[in-house]
From TrEMBL:
Keywords: Amino-acid biosynthesis, Aminotransferase, Branched-chain amino acid biosynthesis, Pyridoxal phosphate, Transferase. The modification N6-(pyridoxal phosphate)lysine is found at residue 190. InterPro entries: Aminotrans_IV (IPR001544), Aminotrans_IV_CS (IPR018300), Aminotransferase-like (IPR036038), B_amino_transII (IPR005786), BCAT-like_C (IPR043132), BCAT-like_N (IPR043131), BCAT_family (IPR033939). It is an enzyme of class 2 (transferase). Its cofactor is pyridoxal 5'-phosphate. It comes from Leuconostoc pseudomesenteroides. Its EC number is 2.6.1.42. Belongs to the class-IV pyridoxal-phosphate-dependent aminotransferase family. One of its GO terms (molecular function) is branched-chain-amino-acid transaminase activity. It holds the Pfam family Aminotran_4. Pathway: Amino-acid biosynthesis; L-isoleucine biosynthesis; L-isoleucine from 2-oxobutanoate: step 4/4; Amino-acid biosynthesis; L-valine biosynthesis; L-valine from pyruvate: step 4/4; Amino-acid biosynthesis; L-leucine biosynthesis; L-leucine from 3-methyl-2-oxobutanoate: step 4/4. It catalyses: L-isoleucine + 2-oxoglutarate = (S)-3-methyl-2-oxopentanoate + L-glutamate; L-leucine + 2-oxoglutarate = 4-methyl-2-oxopentanoate + L-glutamate; L-valine + 2-oxoglutarate = 3-methyl-2-oxobutanoate + L-glutamate. This is Branched-chain-amino-acid aminotransferase. One of its GO terms (biological process) is L-valine biosynthetic process.
Length: 344
């Protein structure tokens, strides 16, 4: 790709950003070879030469992360709990038999990419952020089903707005017969294959007018797992913040943060089994994740029956409070627990 096609800050309408890829000037790459990681550094080319027998192309040795850079009011910028993403990428690497990226390398890469592309961190108050996408894949070459000897680690950046169209306006979700991950499979890893497995289900849901799929547990198809790109929460009528406990869902950084924020706000917070047949207990429901932030779930349609939560048009009061507190910590407007907001 030529340098002329690279994005420029003046190309962006910060208040109306979608969730899309843009080719920014810099990304960070490091290479694992002969049992060790290179120092790594910034590169300008968005394209990576890949061996045709790379395990990342054939056997699913590809894993990723997602986190955001938040522009503060004082002009600086924050990362949110990046150590959690570093650890999760290492856990994903262990599950896929890939070389783990050291936390120091991971954090250095995030900061270098954020600083090098700082003109692309959207202004404070727009609700837009600079999304960072760390990823790693097996560079091969291997033809049998075995882990690669070589790996590539990269972090690229792209400015983004809301993931689920509407932001804090509730949207509709639906269950279906597909699974994105197996019991004992790779659901708890952020592995590319889980997302490949979700595309057909997601496409059918989108074409039918829904925001995303509510996946059910792969053994019984009875309990809520998570959404295609976010974890699920419900707030009961008696003031409990509940979120599914399952070995086959992604351990969401936002989820663990909101479990703490919910307690702080006076809700009882708990990870537990949530039956799809027990939605009546909830006054409000939502999706939570880095991309989704907190997006109210207006309704879930299951086997043709539509269950409406708080409202199909208005965000509920608890969801609003959770959103306000979480985003205030992320943007540095309010002090949060130690280590959550990290200066870039
Ligand atoms: N579940 C899935 C399937 C996701 O893709 C994401 C997004 O990363 C999440 C949950 C939320 O995780 P986090 O809060 O760490 O972004
Ligand atoms: C994220 O929230 O970072 C995600 O990974 C969601 C999606 C864009 C895959």
């Amino acid at each position: 790709m030529s340098e002329q096609q690279k994005a420029k800050p003046e190309d962006f309408d910060w208040d109306n950003l979608g969730f899309e890829y843009h080719d920014l000037p810099y990304r960070f790459r490091a290479y694992y070879k002969d049992g060790k990681w290179s120092e790594g550094g910034l590169e300008t080319d968005a394209n990576i030469p890949v061996n045709e027998a790379a395990t990342g192309l054939h056997y699913g040795q590809n894993i990723f992360e997602g986190l955001k850079v938040y522009r503060r009011k004082d002009g600086g910028a924050n990362l949110f709990r990046p150590d959690r993403n570093a650890k999760r990428l290492q856990n994903s690497a262990d599950r896929l038999m890939m070389a783990p990226v050291p936390e120091e390398l991971f954090l250095r890469a995030l900061k270098e990419v954020a600083k090098a592309n700082q003109d692309f961190i959207p202004p404070y108050g727009t609700g837009a952020t600079l999304y960072l996408r760390p990823f790693e894949f097996g560079g091969g070459p291997v033809v049998g089903v075995h882990p690669a000897d070589n790996y590539v680690f990269e972090v690229y950046a792209t400015p983004v707005g809301a993931y689920y169209k509407g932001g804090l306006t509730p949207t509709a979700y639906v269950t279906n017969h597909y699974d994105r991950a197996a019991h004992g499979g790779t659901g708890a890893a952020k592995a590319g294959g889980n997302y490949g497995a979700s595309m057909l289900a997601g496409d059918e849901a989108h074409k039918a007018g829904y925001s995303d799929v509510v996946y059910l547990d792969p053994r019984l198809h009875e309990n809520i797992e998570e959404l295609g790109s976010a974890n699920f929460f419900g707030i009961t009528k008696d003031g409990r913040f509940l979120t599914p406990k399952s070995p086959s869902i992604l351990p969401s950084v936002t989820k663990y943060s909101l479990l703490a924020v919910a307690q702080e706000l006076g809700l009882k917070a708990e990870e537990t089994t949530i039956s799809i047949n027990d939605l009546d207990q909830f006054a409000e429901a939502g999706a939570m994740g880095t991309a989704a932030v907190i997006s109210p779930v207006g309704s879930i349609t299951h086997q043709g029956n539509k269950h409406v939560f708080y409202s199909e048009t208005e965000v509920g009061p608890w969801t609003q409070k959770l959103y306000d507190r979480l985003t205030a910590i992320q943007y540095g407007d309010q002090e949060g627990p130690e280590g959550w907001a990290v200066d870039v």
